[in-house]
Design goal:
- By secondary structure, the protein is α/β, with parallel strands linked by helices.
- The protein is 31% helix and 22% strand.
- It is built from 13 helices and 21 strands.
- The protein has helices spanning 6-10, 17-23, 63-69, 121-135, 140-163, 175-184, 214-222, 231-250, 258-269, 280-286, 320-328, 362-371, 398-408; strands at 25-27, 42-50, 81-90, 96-100, 105-109, 114-117, 169-173, 188-192, 196-198, 203-205, 208-212, 272-275, 295-299, 307-309, 313-317, 350-355, 376-382, 390-393, 413-415, 423-428, 465-466.
- It has an eight-stranded mixed β-sheet with strand order 1-12-7-2-3-4-13-21, with helices on both faces. Strands 17-16-20-18-19 form a five-stranded mixed β-sheet, with helices on one face. Strands 6-5-15-14 form a four-stranded mixed β-sheet.
- Helix 2 packs parallel to helix 9, helix 6 packs across helix 7 and helix 7 crosses helix 8 (231-250).
- It starts with 5 loop residues before the first helix and ends in an 8-residue tail after the last strand.
Amino acid sequence: MLSAAILVVTGVGWQNLTALTDGLTKQDLSIADAGERPADGAVDIMLVGMDSRTDSKGNPLPQNILNELQAGGSDDGGFNTDTLILLHIPNDSGKAYAVSFPRDSYVKIAGGFGRHKINSAYGYAKGQAAEKLEAGGKSGPEVEMESRKAGAKNLIQTIQDLTGTTIDHYAEVNLVGFYDITKAIGGIDVCLNANVRDGFSGANFKAGPQTIEGKNALAFVRQRHGLPLGDLDRVVRQQVFMAGLAKKMLSAGVLTDSTKRNDMIKAVSGAIVLDDGWDITKFALQMKDMTGGNMTFQTIPTGNPDLQTPEDGSAVEVDEREVRAFVKNLGKAPASSTAPEAKFDNSTVTVDVRNASGVPGLAAQVQQSLVAKGFKAGPTGNAAALTKSVVRYGKAGEAGADAVQEVLGGVPTEEDVNVPAGTVRVFLGSDYSGPGAQGFTGSGALNLDGARQQPAPDPNAPKPITADGVRCVN
């Protein structure tokens, strides 16, 4: 439901951005200020659609509005993040890649909550924080807003751990915000391959092109029952809707209509939550050359869409290594098929392993896993307790660290001047669950190789979704 957040990055032509920014709700999330050229060479923005029945200030939505949205009562929905999109903008600011994460993606949740569906990362941390705040005597409004902050931070960390990126900014919208924004700009053009009717979401549409807004727009992006690929088809719905929204904004049809512009600013300012370090006016000016053809929508690699899990039922299988490689290569030209990629020589790297997890013998088992992959064995030992695992490398040692990271299932890497050249030092935190964690070498705990087993891309497959046209979808 956060398709509407694209308004924030395409509103360059607004004459009264101050009116917009003054009304936005801000949260102190302690994340990086992107500036003009962030350290990793790109601006990465987390766009979140919240399935909550409260507004941006934490106030319950009126029941008459919930009835209009077919969203149940004020206690339904919780704080699941049903739309998650990483907006990745390379340094040239001329292109943007909107990467969707299916809400049922089965991943490691930050904060020590284990493996669950990714849309629960916010709710787990919010609930835990709320309990502590209530026990500490905080008032209801304080509990609500502070626990929301904890939820957002945990979601950001989960996405960072999964993708290997650093989130520079955060934007969040709720049900009623989405509803108001689509009505303010006069609806969005979409197209369906077939008639659909779904009692859960309220979707009732004929096949073919059409313009939707308000509750129909919400039903369009919420439907997953009755679609061939369920949640994966819903992700595509969200992408084509977001593309249509961006197309309308970039065409200046809204920006030149004073009534629509004012209605849209009012809707956005009352619906969206941003991190407090984001200078949205400066960012809009950076994006002034954006065109519809330069905005591409993609989805992270996934495997089995019906992965059976211990606690969460059916989920979407995700391989962290595949996701990291996918995000890392956004915007890069594909490697030539005639020139095979040079394989890194693992034997050139010595690996030291430090056990900071408290699990006896883990360092030795993990090192055996690495030696089996061709790395040289360095010393093992214990280290002060760590919550998060990390792979550290010295000067010019990034390639070796990446090779180790791949074997260990995506453990984050960082440079450390104290690590000798030719050596990679692994610190195993309490979150480690990769090779060696169960006393064996080879695959990690869940053998998440479904994404790599997918067939090669179909040359007859539909063209990528961009904000330069309207594509028919399921």
